[in-house]
Structure formats: structure tokens, C-alpha cells
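Chapter summary example: a protein plus cobalt (II) ion.
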Amino acid sequence: MEDYSLGLTSLKDEQQPVRAEIQGRMPEWLKGTLIRNGPAQWDEVRHWFDGMAMLHSFSMDESGVVYRNRFLRGPDWCALNQQGKLAYPQFATDPCRHFFKKVASLFISDLGCNPNVNVVKIGKTWLALTETPLALEFDPETLQTLGLYDYDRDALHRHITSAHPIVENGVLYNFTVQMGKTSRYNGYRMPAGGSRQTFAHHLSASPAYLHSCALTAHEMLLWEGPFVVDPLRLLWRNRPYIENFRWRPELGSRLVRLGRDGTSQAYELPPLFVFHHVNSFYQENSLCVDMLAYQDASLVGQLYLNNLKPAGGERVETPHLVRVRVEQNRARLETLSRTPLELPRILEGQGQAYRYVYGITQQQSRFYDGLVKLDTWNDSQLTWSEPGCFAGEPVPQQAPDGAEVVLLSVVLDTKRSQSFLLVLDAETMTERARAYVPAVVPFGFHGGFTGAL
Ligand code: CO
């Protein structure tokens, strides 16, 4: 039996900083810290996405690799660990009714903060992010929580947002979903230390679940698939947040373009569900928007713990790469590859032409048990996998002299009941080194590498 459920088992304790056991040779130029975010404690919750946020770091220098982890001490974690009960709504789990104070004026009924999806650096500030309105600031060296970050209580205060901002020249770009009688998507920019300014918005009759965006020098792009919610259901909800959304393929999808000049447009396209945009860029006169597409939103249901953990559950669906090409104000959808790929990363900056996308993939398992490098020019691929191993998001990192690129991925080795940091040669997808930590790093989502702290 494949026992990846070890990666979905709650951690109780935090680790003292500990040196990893290195096999192979780490590249000498690889100095810095990989910071990862993800859920690590699933007491009282029902879904992979609902676990309490924990940061993990792997600091690399000539003396080796040091691993640290720390729970983020947001209101949700504090309540769960002090009162033993879930106090705030999560993605797919609500607290018991008597803990759940309904505030009718808010669409998110109570502002907790369990930012277990991603991290971002803006100026000198590191933030842990999810899709609810608040973020948590943390110290990248010790991983200690520094406090709630509520964006200066600006005009977008209390909106649903995304954990996938894009930082360009020190300015953070992201969007909010403003639910109401008329719902709207707001694209915003936020300079370091500044407040958020909306640069364009688009009205939506049926607001969709949106997870990420793409960005070029001219616009932000959002894929509005037909996984939609009636805002009134959220207001008077009697079920967890995501369970208010419905898959309505008859609505089709829209590619929403939020121009940096304040304009907006939407292009009608077939019904597909998307978590992650990969990139967007201009190729001659056409705008290419690449993303990973699912046939529908079934994945959300497949990631409940009662499907994922027991043997015999439904296989997790993995999406494939599609491109929307916009030319002369018309959009069409192309399939670039059928290779299964999720948690996509590219080496290039957003908005630039690119060739390779890296991600997690599925080989034998019903969960993610490999890494893949997909060549978008000719749909060829290279993969890495090992029996009993389950890999996380691969982060590409280029040597300072540009001579080589490695991928950094945290892998669970069920044969040893330990996780390791895998360093792959990104050209050949072969192993350079691995660094075992004396612990299991639960399956997480996103992270980043930073050269200097
Ligand atoms: Co994501």
C-alpha cells in the first residue's frame, strides 16, 4: 500500500534547528534559504487545505543544510491550540455553531487568519498568505510570527484575495474578489510599505473561485471558470465556504483582462477549472495566457481528507497545460500538452517568453509522486520519480553565473518515514543531492528561495 498519508498526518511539535544528512554533492553556489508554506495540523478539519499553517525552511551554505519549522501563530492556530477547538471558518470546514459568531455584514463571517498557502517578500517584509483578507508577517530567519498584516485597512479591506501575488520591480500585484449585489474583481498594485491601489476592475454576474492570476507589462489576466457562488449563499451560509460554490458548465468560462490603463474586457471560452496560471506573454501580435486546466472542479472534492487518507479513495486528478491565444480581440483555446502537471514554476519572470515549465506530476500513485519538466515548444518531457516518494512544488534556482539551473523540491520518502530536500539538475532532471531531515514535512503548497536574509 502506498502510505503517503504520512504526509497528511498532524505535527504536534516544532523542531529545533537541525542539520540535514546530505547524500551526493550540493552545488557550491547554492547558498540561501528555501522557505515553504503548508498545512501541518489537521485536528478538527476535513480538507487538505484546512490544516494549520506551518513554515519550513532549508538554509544552505558551505557547511551544509539546516532545517527549521514553526507553526504560524495566527488567531486560528492560537484558538485551536489553546481552546482545543476550531474557532474560525476554513476553506472546507466551519467551526461548531456555538463557536461561530455570525456577522451578517461580512461575507467572510469572522476574520481569522490561517495563511497556509504561500509566502511573499515585499520590500523587507515577509508575508504568509492565503485567500482570506488578512496575512501574517514573519521573520524569515527564525520563522517566528511577527503579527497580523491587514494592508493598512485600505479600500480593499475584508475582500477575498489570492495567495499568488506577483512582485515586479518591488511592486506587488494581486487581485481581490468583492462579493456583493454586484460582484467585481479588482486588480491592484501595492508598493513596498504602501497601500493597495486598484488599477482596473471587472464586474461579474456570477463570481467564481479564483486562485491565481497572470501578469504582463500591459495587463493582469484572470480565468473565470464556472465554479461560481451566489454571494447571498455566502452571506447566509449554512455550510463551509467552498461548499457554497457550484460547477455550472453551462456558464462557460471567461478570460478576464484587467488593463493597467484601467480598461477591462472578457473573452468567452469553454468551461474549464483552473487553480494555477503558468505565465502570460506576447508572441508577435498575440497574447498567450498559459494555465493548467481541469475538466471541472472535482479536485476540490478529491482533496477532502476522508478521500485522500484511506486506501481505495478516488484518484486525484492532475491538470494539463493549455494556452489561450488572444489575437485581434478574439480568444481561442489550445491544448499544449496532456502531461499531468500541477504546482507549476518557471525560471523566467512573469510576462516574459519561456520554454520550460516544472511541476509535480503523477506516475503510479493516486497522489503526486513525481516531478516533471515540460518543454512547451514541442510537448516533450523529462520526469523524476522514485518508489515510495512523493514530491512537492519544484522551485527553480539559477547559478549566479547563469551556467546551470537546479530544482529544489521537498520530498516525502515513505520508505524511511522522513522527508528530504531534493536538488535536481533542471536540464536532465537527474539528482545532484538530497538532504534528509529527521522529520516528516507534511505536504504543503508553495514557497520561495531567497539568497540573503
Ligand atoms: Co496555489
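Key point: Residues 99-109 have pLDDT under 50 and may be disordered.
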